[in-house]
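BUG: 3D viewer hangs when loading the predicted structure for this chain

Environment: internal workstation, default settings.
Expected: structure renders.
Actual: progress bar stalls at 90%.

Input used:
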Amino acid sequence: MQGKVMSEHSASHDVGVGIDVCKEWLDIHILPAGAVLRFSNTKKGRKQLLCALKPLGVRIVVVEATGKYHRGVHRFLHDARLSIAVVNPLRARLFAESLGALAKTDSVDARMLAAFDLMAQLAATPPLPETIENLCEIVRNREAAKAAAGALEALGVQTIEADPGLARRFAILISIPGVGAVTACGPIANMPELGSLNAKQAGLLAGLAPLACDSGQRNGPRRIRGGRQAVRTGVYMAALSAVRFNPHLKRFYERLLAAGKAKKLALTAVMRKPIVLANDLIEEDRLWSPQTPAAKPLHA
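C-alpha cells produced before the viewer hung:
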C-alpha cells in the first residue's frame, strides 16, 4: 500500500473511490482526502483493498471497463456487498478532459474516476453471470480476429497487385462468377502450378479428384485423398455459394443429385469445377466469358 492512509474518523457517504485497473495493479484514489493506494490485481490485493475500503462508508466504487482485467475486482467487491459502477473508458476520458486533466496516467485516471462519482452520483453495475462474461470475451475475440483477417486479406491483395504476373492471374480468377478476392488469393498462393496442368492433374493436386478403391470383384466407393488442403478449404465456401447463386453450377449440382449422387460428392464435383476452369483460363491467358471462345484456326 502506498500514499496516505485514511482513518476511521473520515468515514462518510460523500467519499469518492476510483480504481484504475490493469493486468498487474489496482491504483486507487480516495476523495476528498486524496488518499493514494496501490494493490496487486490478485486475490490477496483485492482482500487488502476491501480492508482499506470497509471502514470508509463508501457509497460506490468506480472502475473503468478494461476487458477481462476489471472483472475480478468487480465481482469480488460486489460479493463483499460494495456497490461498483463500471464506466466506459471514453466517457471517463471525456470527463477528465473537461476538467483540464489532459495527462493520462494510472494515478490521474483513478483520481478522475473518484471525482466522476462525486459529481455524477453514478449507479451501480452488477456483474454479469460468469457464463455471459466468458461468452462476451469469445465474441469480442472473434470480432478482433475478423478485423485482423480483413487486414491480412487486404495486404494479400496489395501484394498480388504489385506483381504484374500475379495481378493478371488475380484478374482472371475474379472474373469467374462466384470467385471473390479472398477466394482468388488462395489458389494463387497455394497452387502456383495452375495454367501448366491438364484437368486431371489440377483436380489431383487440389485433392478434389475421386480415386478408385477397387480390389478383385469389389468396386469400392471413389473418395478424394491427398492434395492440398489449403486449396480445398479456400474453394469450399465458394462452392456452397455457387450451388445457390451460380446458375451453371447450380444446374450441374442439381443434376448430380438427381442422378443419385450424395450431397457431399456432388459438392466436391462443384469444388473441382472452378479449379479446372481457372487452370484452363490461366493457360489461355483470358478472362472468363459466358460464351465459349472460338477455336483457333489450324495453320498449314
